[in-house]
Amino acid sequence: MIPQPSAPDSADYAVVLAPGAVRLERTLPGPIERVWAYLTESDKRKQWLGSGEMELAVGGAVEHVFRNSELTRDDAPPPAKHAAHAVESRMHGRITACEPPRILAYTWGEVEGEHADAGSEVRFELTPVGTNVRLVVTHRRLASRDGMVGVSSGWHSHLTVLAARLAGRTPPGFWATYSRLEDEYEQRIPAAATSAR
C-alpha cells in the first residue's frame, strides 16, 4: 500500500501575489550555505528537484533534468496527463540574479518537446533565522491559470521533498503528494488569477 502524504499546514500553500505570480515559504534546517548548495549543486538538487548544471552568474545557463518518478520511494504512479514526462524532462533558462548565498533567480524556460510557460521566472530568497533558513520561492509571469495550478502544485511537492531531505527524513511520495495538491490548488487558485503578460 502506498503511504498517503500528511496534510500540509495551511501556511505551506502557495499564495497568489498578483495575476500570474505565486509565492511559497518554508523554514528549513540550516545553515544557509547548505540550503544554497541544494539549490545550486546538481548532485544535491537532483535529490529534490532536478539535476543539471548552473552557471552562477547573471546571464549564465541553467538546466534542470527532471526525473520526478525517481525522487521518492513507494510512490503512486504519475497522473495520466504527466505520464509522458514522468521518466525524464528537461528545462532550460538563464540566471537573472545571483547573490550567494541569499538570492538566486532564473527564467523558467522550455521543457524539452513542449512549451511550458516560457518566459516565466523563479526567484529564491534565503534568510537565516537562528539555526534555520527561511526560503521564499516566487514564480512570476505565469501565462495561464493552469500554469499557476501546475507550478504551485509542483513547487509545493518539490519543497516537501527538500524539507524532508534537509531534516534527514524520508519524504512522502512525490506523485502522491502532487496529485492531491493539484486537486487542492484547483480549488484554491481563483479563475481570475491569470496574467496577460
Helix amount, in percent?
Answer: 25-40%
Which residue ranges are poorly predicted, with pLDDT under 50 across at least 5 consecutive positions? 1-8, 113-117
**Mean of the pLDDT scores?**
90
Mind telling me the C-alpha Rg? 16 Å
CATH architectural group: 2-Layer Sandwich
The CATH C-level name is Alpha Beta
Largest sheet: 7 strands, antiparallel
What general outline do the C-alpha atoms trace? globular
Say which CATH homologous superfamily is assigned. Answer: START domain
Q: How does the helix and strand content classify structurally?
A: alpha+beta
CATH fold-level topology: Alpha-D-Glucose-1,6-Bisphosphate, Chain A, domain 4
Total helices: the number is 4
Distance between the termini: 44 Å
Estimated share of beta-strand residues: 25-35%
Strand order in the sheet with the most strands: 1-2-7-6-5-4-3
Summarize the helix and strand pattern as letters. EEHHEEEEEHH
Kindly give the count of domains.
1
Number of strands: 7
Report on this structure:
- The protein has one domain: START domain (Alpha-D-Glucose-1,6-Bisphosphate, Chain A, domain 4), CATH 3.30.530.20.
- 26% of the residues lie in helices and 28% in strands.
- It contains four helices and seven strands.
- Helix 3 packs across helix 4.
- The chain starts with 14 loop residues before the first strand and ends in a 9-residue tail after the last helix.
- The N terminus is likely disordered.
